[in-house]
Specification:
Structural class: mainly alpha
Order of helices and strands: HHHHHHHHHHHHHH
Oligomer: single chain
Helix content: over 70%
Number of domains: 1
Radius of gyration: 19 Å
Strand content: under 5%
Number of strands: 0
Largest sheet: none
Distance between the termini: 12 Å
Shape: globular
């Protein structure tokens, strides 16, 4: 990992991003409702890519800066975001955000595979907490297969995000805008490709467009894509997958509260228990099982 002087504290950048990621579901669902298409949000990602190009033009060396690991990291982030964007349309907000935040648990397995990180008691406990939380969130039986499609998308999203952070950690430290130039259009392309996989074709026509959906797309591309994506990608060279997941967990609170207020979405006791275990998984891996470790700095 490359250490450098940061103009913004990476942990603060991650925290600020959660305020936007926590309400990310609002524009995504509004665009889908107004356009009648789950794929219209792809336009927002292409716009975000254009905005990123404008900011990156002042710096030279874009092609030389993008080494293979950064390219792979960008692809994984784009896949993760596109899956999450589609997933929150097919499952509850609570399930979507909680299943994504199994990312730190997947980060333990990925770290073991790529960096030979040892399986300590704390890490094994984190895995048990996380997977038990997964079972509680999904339920023990009579699963709704329609909702399960969104659940699987969000689980895969968290897994791919953990892989992306691992690639970025081991890659060259380069400008954040360079990555966003790559990530934005790739997200849009993945969402459009998913429309072909569903048999619906491109999934975007002028008949779907309205001034209201256009306004939401502009807001989505700037407030909910470009800004929080810049903040989170900015921090990836300073924080590993587990610490990133821990820092982003305030998004859970923002998501659940906003969903409860705006959609009257009910949070069950089972989901609350799953939430506690999934959050606990990250806390245990970073701080350890013993409660007095919470007054200390996270483990390396």
């Amino acid at each position: 990992m490359v250490h450098t002087n940061y103009i913004v504290n990476p942990r603060l950048a991650v925290f600020l991003s959660t305020l936007f990621w926590g309400t990310y579901w609002i524009p995504v669902r509004q665009i889908e409702i107004l356009s009648g298409s789950p794929y219209f949000s792809s336009i927002g990602f292409f716009i975000a890519g254009g905005i990123s190009i404008c900011f990156s033009l002042s710096t030279k060396g874009f092609v030389r800066a993008m080494d293979l690991r950064n390219v792979l990291g960008c692809i994984c982030v784009a896949a993760a975001i596109s899956l999450y964007t589609q997933g929150i349309l097919y499952t509850s907000i609570a399930n979507a955000v909680l299943l994504f935040y199994l990312s730190p648990v997947w980060g333990i397995f990925i770290g073991r595979f790529f960096a030979q990180i040892k399986f300590t008691v704390d890490r094994v406990s984190a895995i048990v907490f996380g997977l038990t939380g997964l079972v509680l969130v999904l339920g023990f039986g009579n699963l709704d297969m329609d909702g399960m499609t969104g659940n699987v998308m969000c689980i895969l999203s968290g897994f791919l995000f953990a892989i992306a952070v691992t690639f970025f950690n081991s890659g060259r430290a380069i400008g954040t805008w360079y990555k966003l130039v790559f990530i934005g259009p790739t997200c849009g392309a993945f969402i459009l490709l998913s429309s072909f996989g569903s048999g619906e074709g491109v999934g975007i026509t002028l008949d779907n467009f309205s001034w209201s959906s256009g306004l939401w797309i502009i807001l989505f591309s700037t407030v909910w894509v470009t800004l929080p994506l810049w903040l989170i990608i900015y921090a990836v060279h300073a924080l590993d997958a587990v610490k990133m997941g821990l820092g982003m967990m305030f998004e859970i609170v923002v998501s659940l509260v906003s969903a409860a207020i705006l959609t009257q979405e009910q949070i069950t006791l089972r989901q609350i228990l799953g939430t506690i275990l999934i959050i606990g998984a990250s806390l245990v891996d970073v701080f350890g099982l013993r409660f007095w470790n919470f007054n200390k700095h996270p483990k390396n």
